[in-house]
Amino acid sequence: MKEAIDCKPGQIIKKDGALHVVRSWYPHKIGDRGGILVDMKLENLDTGSISMIQPRSQDKFEDVVLERKQVQYSYPDGEMYVFIDKNTFDQIEINETLIGDNLGFLRENMELDIFFHDGRAVSVVFPTFVEMEISYTENVARGDTSGKVMKKAKLEDSGYEIDVPSFCNIGDRIKIDTRTHEYVERVK
């Protein structure tokens, strides 16, 4: 059994007999002695429906046994994305909805983990950090030193947009956290 406080985004849990992927997770304390509640956003893997729950930190969910395969991204095929199993060299097709918000970070030959439950792909896990090049960004007005000035930047290949500090320019390589989709640092 897995406690709610240990369920992180991207993990698979079993709730009410159905598999759910944890999309967001935020623990917070209630009162002086109230304990900790965990706000969780869950997506049902069968229906795609989203639900919000608020269990106590010690509430338990049933463990799910998953098979992990290390894969390398190969190419897109319509709404499907083709990966190559690094051990058997079999092709695995994954629907873009399973990849989710991280689709903008997917690059050719990228290595990922795909988790399977009873032969069905249930989760695609990206590396925690990816490095990408900025393909387009606007200039920021000079002299604005009032705080952390951010601007929009488009990333190579995908055109995915994120906020970056004003000192980042076209052609700069940056590190991005795939869990939060936020800028981490500029890569030298």
Automatic annotation (TrEMBL):
Top-rank taxon, per record: Bacteria
Pathway: Protein biosynthesis; polypeptide chain elongation
Subcellular location: Cytoplasm
Domain (Translation elongation factor P/YeiP central): residue spans on this chain: 68-122
GO cellular component: cytosol
Keywords in alphabetical order: Cytoplasm, Elongation factor, Protein biosynthesis
Residues annotated as domain Elongation factor P C-terminal: 130-186
NCBIfam families reported in the protein's UniProt record: efp (TIGR00038), PRK00529.1 (NF001810)
Family the entry assigns: Belongs to the elongation factor P family.
UniProt cross-references to PANTHER family, sorted A to Z: ELONGATION FACTOR P, ELONGATION FACTOR P (EF-P) FAMILY PROTEIN
HAMAP family, alphabetized: EF_P (MF_00141)
Protein name as catalogued: Elongation factor P
Organism for this UniProt entry: Candidatus Termititenax dinenymphae
